[in-house]
Structures
1.
Amino acid sequence: MTERFVTRGFVGRRTQPGEAGDLASRIPPGQYLTPDFPVLSAGPTPRTPLDKWTFAISGLVREPKQWTWDEFLALSARDWTVDISCVTKWTKLDMNWRGVSVDTLFENVELDPSAAFVIAWSDGGYTTNLPLGDVLNGQAFVAYEYDGAPLAPEHGGPARLVVPARYFWKSAKWIRGLRLQREDEPGFWESLGYHNRGDQWLEERYSGD
Amino acid sequence: MPRPIEWQLGTVTGIQTETPTVRSFTLGLPEWLGHRAGQHVDIRLTAEDGYSVERSYSIASEPELAGQLEITVERIPNGEVSPFLHDVVVEGDRLEVRGPIGGYFVWETSLGGPLLLVAGGSGVVPLMAMLRHRARAGATIPTRLLFSSRGPDEIIYRDELDRLAGHGDGLEVAYTLTRQQPPGWTGYSRRIDDRMLDEVLRPLGSGARTYICGPTALVETAANALLRLGLPADRIRTERFGPTGT
Ligand SMILES: Cc1cc2nc3c(=O)[nH]c(=O)nc-3n(C[C@H](O)[C@H](O)[C@H](O)COP(=O)(O)OP(=O)(O)OC[C@H]3O[C@@H](n4cnc5c(N)ncnc54)[C@H](O)[C@@H]3O)c2cc1C
């Protein structure tokens, strides 16, 4: 559609009461602000006991690395305040997490120079793919606390990936590892019609966008 | 590069009141390429000055209906889009639509059964598309719908569901009313729990393909209960819309 279509009679709610106008610049196209933290997932919420939980870095690294839950908690962590956008249209500002930067995780392995893509994989079989460049330099972290409390299972606990610059499906819930690959490989939603990259500022929602 | 899912203009050809807070809208879409039961569309509303919003709505109609589709919308007080659709849109209006979207929460007769559908409120919408598809295809796959609503006036698609269940083609519908029951009510009268799911699931067996849609609390409860009842996790597909409710 080249000419802009106008919906008869639509004005819109615009900014909600009490919302400063400058917040608009933080809301990606087609998104709306929500005060809730909605839950979306394709199947039942997996529950792995913490004494069985491990986090692995595998694939194109010199030596694969694995942490137990206690070892993971001992890694240097920090607080992150980030805006999150879900492809289902909600955006939530200033979400407070605590977790370990992917950079910190990678300091413990030696990446093969041919590694170009990361596959995040989770309990329950979920996967999502990201170019290596999308998770480095503070762009991604593995969170285990939200708002000062352990991350709830329905929100991806015990630990989830968080990649604030991409639609939230890239922030794999129940994450158990990162696999480094030379070739890209579409993950769960990426194989089901969602965009391979998922940049919310470019509105890369569905494949072909 | 895959082809983008283009925005199309749909014309509202029918509006039907389902319950006091729920309406269905039929959209004529000449360029619609078809969908699978369970998928959704995005609707975009745009104001004169270019301000626009988008929301997702499950497709209620079966894929066999060519050139048109139906969505069913619950009016959320103070919402931006659903009150507009309810209060402003009339027949003949045009709406921007794109889709179909979503390839996981889908069912078609070729996937087989037995089929267990669990719905809360407007979560019944994508499941209705599955039931309409099943009926249209003449399938006799053993199927059960467990449908939770607050009160008797809030059961979406009640007449049609009763009619479909009356065909004797292997579909059974069980209702539960959580807040208010009419005199002589013979359905369930509580929130979905393990015992209820056990009763509904039992005749289908623990190999049932299961689709659960509704508010998060209902989806979590039902999915966890079904896992306890022995259903493998990969047989359970969930979809949630609406707030967390907590
Ligand atoms: C994949 C998918 C499929 C969907 N299918 C349907 C469908 O078939 N039918 C349908 O009616 N909706 C469906 N929805 C929800 C729909 O997209 C909108 O979220 C809903 O219509 C509310 O939009 P709104 O603009 O009116 O309210 P908003 O302005 O977005 O919200 C106003 C307030 O209401 C809250 N709210 C949002 N949804 C609900 C709810 N369901 N109950 C109570 N409070 C709520 C919000 O959190 C917010 O605080 C679907 C959503 C998704 C992601």
2.
Amino acid sequence: MSAKRFVTTQVEVEGRVETKIVEMPSRSPEPWGDDADLHVVGLRAQRMDALEKVTGQARYTADVQLAGMLHAVVLRSPIARGQVTEIDFTAALALAGVSDVLTLGDVPGIRRDGVQLFDQRIHYAGQPLAAICAESADVAHRALGLVRMTYESEAPVSTPAQALATDAPKVKPNGNTPRNMPKVSKRGDVHAGLAAADVTITREYRTPVALHTAMEPHGAVAEWVGEQVTVYESTQGIFNTRADLAAEFKLPLSHVRVIKNYMGGGFGAKNGASTAAAIAVALSRKLERPVRCIWDREGEQLDAGNRPATIQRVTLGAKRDGTLTAIQLDATIPLGIGGWQGGPGKFYHEMYACENVETRETFVYMNTSAMSSFRAPGHTEGAFGLECALDALAHELHMDPLALRVHNHAARDQVQDRPYSLKRLRECYAQGAEQFGWEAHRASCAKQSSSSRLRRGVGVASQIWSAGGGPPAYATVRINPDGTIEVLTGAQDLGTGARTVFAQVAAETLGAKLGDCRTVLGDTERLPFASNSWGSITTASVAPAVRVAAEEARERLFEAASGMLGVEPDQLESRDSLITVLGEEKSLTFAQVGRKLGDVMIIGQGSRGPNPEKTAISAFAAQFAEVEVDVDTGRVRVLRIVSAHDSGRILNPTLAESQLEGGIIQGVGYALFEERVLDERLGLPMNPTSHDYKVPTIGDVPVIEAFFVAGSDVVANHVGVKGVAEPPIIPTAPAIANAVRCALGVECLEIPLTPWRVLGALQSS
Amino acid sequence: MRLTINGVPRDVPAGDHETLLAVIRERLQLTGTKEGCARGECGACTVLIDGRAAYSCLTLAAGCADSAVTTIEGLGRADALHPLQQAFIEQDALQCGFCTPGQLLAAAALIARTPRPSEDDVRVALSGNLCRCGTYPKLVRAVMQAAEMMRAEP
Ligand code: FES
Ligand code: FES
């Protein structure tokens, strides 16, 4: 009697815990522990798709050119709230080369963030109102300039205060907040905790709306053939996109094929079918031609998601020795016109040991574009509040802020009262502080002259992020007659290196040469399911499935080879694509076995098993920043960031370090420059370009020393891996703000730390 | 109009108002050059015009009739990589790769005019090329390595 094939397990993605059905894998391999004898996993192998990328051959969505392809551009609302009274396309349609327009009547029931596509009621600036399709993008753009539109504008709801006012105009039919606000979450008794405290502090922190600003904007190319549509989309989730489009266009899943080979960054904004994809699919169906629809930069900055702003009112209580007795948060999070409730609260519940925690989050709708996930949604915002408040508390207690953090280290997950699979945060603190020279730097900052113009400061912040991944995820490993190997899985590589590390896992398991392995991703029609690449889950979800598939393939390969060699399969081992008989000279290469087999394929199938029960799987880090502040100009320069991470086993340190550096650099932008500026009277974003919305350039980057604290997480999964992508951005802004406080002796409660904010903080002190 | 792209003269039926980027990508289907903003802000469209780095999205194609234009397709081949391409791979100076063609050409222009660049020279030369993935530290290393490789070459 075999065990159950389908069971359930918990999977946590971006703070959302879901119970999932999981198909038990055909085998559960022995976990690769710290002492596992591995040869390919852990190598600093070159990125597998680097050659395509440096030669310009990598084909991104906008590079797809199909015979007879048309080009669609979008008419957007220039106002934030009101009603379209008329759109006149006569002149646009008269232009030579213009094919058609797509309007509300063509897209019934297709909604994005709760708003009907091409709704003539205007909910936010930049809202799509129609699309124009032409023989070339050039003609389509010129046609756009010929459209005449009239509308009635109304005063928009642009701030949470306006939205929550009793006489506020309604942003959504059901009001200006989601149901059941505030969202309250608590453990213990926060009032008792505050009463028991020797010291309490209260602060109000503010974080900005941040824009993903991926270098490649959203976009899609759609082509209908017969009853089927193929969609090339820049997406983090090909299967999510397929499901969205199939539902919206009332098609069987088998009739929608979504392809994403390369993409120019997502960072959370590309998690399902984009508006561009819906437009391209609808136009392609209508006109019976392939259609390309790519957001221009302004559209991308206006209408492609954002990290929502927060206002976080924080109260902490502690004993004299630093023991936290109470953590209280009252937060307001303006979502824009829609989005999901990814708030800062969870970080407050899980970062530090504390019996009494209460968070209240009020999510608010306004007449601005909808938020979406953005690299560690909620936690990046929450870390700024809590980690800065902790520094203020340390100051009040005359404690070293690092010591205060170590003192309040949480040994267990207090949210669900369960152990961590592995937690090496203490090692992160110790190794990070050592590498940074924390003690010495703090001492020298304390000694600097208060009359000097340039002041140095150092700061620290910590991080936690659920990074266990989980099922479902599938992989197939195929050995060709010439001994080359294909790893097939419907996951995505956003630039993370997923292609490379899956090949490393397959090569390791098979005993194959890495150079003989190729990973194929990003095609719903040809590949087995893997979930969205979000929440730092891809590697921990898919790598175990690849390992199982490769084990199955190896078993078959060894069975075939054993007959050829006249021995039992268990007498065989393999390395570098050579199968040898233990203790004997006899051997066969994979290619020799393959040639003898001819077209008899060796195929292994693998799936991702359940997560361990009642166990929290998280990634951790401690980050240290050194800054120099010019007290005359208010300019902050980040000089150095040291970041020590626990993400379990690292499959390829080079690629993982690249992700750490990238996350930290985005964190520097969030701390210092990035902010969507809204004209609150008109509700219009003032800086929807990549010039006026400031992302870091190469000149803004500090010295970065980011590294991993060694250790395989064998409880998490049998490969020992946890997520890497999101953790590095979480602690960067508070580490920098804390360093600025150390430099100036003044707290800055709001990011980005632009010169005028820094000068303002100095003046008000 | 007649354009010389990667050493090959080509007659292109393009309007006088069309940008070099649009002509390269849409008419010649050389899609290695990327469009990130089409307004001179991101550097993804960088090409070489007579050896100098230029934003092709801000350049009218008609103005390039007497110039030699080099795109990423002309920098090196998969079987004969330019030292910069080799160094980018070895240093992992790319993640999503979308900004990479532009970074490579901006760097090529730098090394051509300054064979012995300092790290700050590299930062200045690449300051008009955004990379949202944050490959900047590795870009500096890769360009320094490539410059050294090219000096060592006979
Ligand atoms: S596309 Fe030319 S600078 Fe951005
Ligand atoms: S590698 Fe992604 S934008 Fe530079």
